[in-house]
Amino acid sequence: MNSTTKFAGRCLCGEVTVSVEGEHDPQPGACHCRMCQRWTGGVFLAFTAAADAVTVEGPVRHFQSTPFAERAFCSTCGTHLWMRNTDDQAAEYDLMAGLFDAACDWPLRSEIYTDKAMASIRLEGDHTRKTEAEYEGSNPHVN
User: Fold this and answer.
1) What string of pLDDT tens digits covers the 143 residues of the chain?
2) Residue 120: phi, psi to the nearest 5?
3) Which of 44, 68, 88, 132 is the most buried (most CB within 10 A)?
């Protein structure tokens, strides 16, 4: 993580606000795994922020999507907010980039599960790409 700029975002209805003030990576990563496709309807696009840099206000619901991670959403409008590991209280947030106007100009950092990407969602640019086998080979906890 390499930025400490302060900014805020919100869900579709505005009842949940997310503020970031502290360490974060101003370059989102994309995930094309089937779970993320089902959750987002296409591609999961998020950036990381340190737990102590994130402040959340409003009606948030959590869903334990795997034994080690949760996904959060606004309980009013359903806007997806983040994914986060639950095995560590200090785990960073993977915040949905679309919540934040500040993220509109951020370049893509990486893509994972590229071999699972939907034909209609092919991301261009010069960034790191990993297939399912490559990503899971270096992250055995997801198997």
Assistant:
1) 566 779 999 999 999 999 999 999 999 999 999 999 999 999 999 999 999 999 999 999 999 999 999 999 999 999 999 999 998 889 999 999 999 999 999 999 999 999 999 999 888 888 999 989 898 888 877 76
2) -80, -5
3) 44
Gap between the Cα atoms of 97 and 143, Å rounded: 26
Give the CA-trace dihedral at 77, 106, 24, 74, to 10 degrees.
0
Structure tokens, 132: 């399912």
Cα(40)–Cα(35) distance, integer angstroms: 9
Question: Which DSSP category does 76 fall into?
Answer: T
pTM higher than the cut 0.85: yes
